[in-house]
Design a protein that fits this description.
- The chain has 218 residues and is α/β, with parallel strands linked by helices.
- The chain has a single domain, classed as Vaccinia Virus protein VP39 (Rossmann fold).
- Helix content is 31%, strand content 19%.
- The protein has five helices and seven strands; from the N terminus they run H-E-E-E-E-H-E-H-H-H-E-E.
- Strands 3-2-1-4-5-7-6 form a seven-stranded mixed sheet.
- It is globular.
- The protein starts with a helix and ends with a strand.
- The relative contact order is 0.14.
Length: 218
């Protein structure tokens, strides 16, 4: 597995390459909304969602738009119905995150919203304080036997995570970008998508979930 410094170098070069994609889609060939509206899936990874414009910077993945979103979103103001992103925003430095959230706000239609899923800082702290090593189920990207190692692995992900969120922190950064009506949500529940919310962690423990689900509206 590549270390994070090597990954950062690779994605710095990819970011420059996708700048051309941004300019092409922003000014020459805008992406049109599909039946049911224009819905973005940011940082789709291998989870390609039907009905969404799937966006990712990794050129090896199936996408509808190859783009490093640090370059901005190639959509006019007030044209996007919804934005969905799971376990993506924690990978941005605070200044990058704030610019991206401002871009989310800019492109959304009035009344449109975001559904954002990130690792839960509050759940991780609770599990650590309770000495609940079994809560830290993932060995990605490193395997640790100690509780402290498991906690660090979950929260910082070998340097891949640059931010951590509880609900209060998420409210603060979303409000700073202009969003209102910031709501804490949950797996399978959504004001934004109703009964059509994409599943993320359906088997997670509901009383101490591994992810924080937040929705906010313009």
């Amino acid at each position: 597995m590549l270390n994070q410094r090597t990954k950062d170098l690779c994605f710095a070069m990819i970011s420059k390459a996708t700048r051309a994609t941004y300019l092409f889609r922003r000014y020459l060939a805008p992406i049109q909304g599909r039946e049911g509206g224009l819905h973005l899936h940011i940082g789709c990874g291998p989870s390609y969602l039907s009905g969404f414009v799937n966006v990712d910077a990794n050129p090896l993945l199936k996408t509808d738009l190859w783009l490093d979103v640090r370059n901005g979103l190639p959509f006019p103001d007030d044209t996007v119905d919804s934005i969905y992103a799971t376990h993506v925003l924690e990978h941005f430095f605070s200044d990058e995150l704030q610019r991206l959230l401002c871009e989310f706000f800019r492109v959304l239609k009035k009344g449109g919203g975001v559904r954002l899923v990130v690792p839960s800082l509050s759940s991780a702290v609770t599990a650590y304080v309770q000495r609940n090593a079994e809560w830290f189920t993932s060995d990605f990207p490193q395997h640790y036997e100690s509780l402290g190692g498991k906690f660090v692995n979950f929260l910082f992900c070998d340097g891949q995570h640059r931010s951590a969120f509880d609900f209060g922190h998420f409210c603060e950064v979303l409000s700073a970008a202009g969003f209102s009506a910031v709501l804490e949500s949950a797996e399978g529940k959504s004001r934004l998508y109703g009964d059509h919310v994409p599943p993320y962690e359906p088997g997670d423990v509901p009383d101490l979930p591994h992810s924080l689900f937040v929705e906010a509206f313009k």
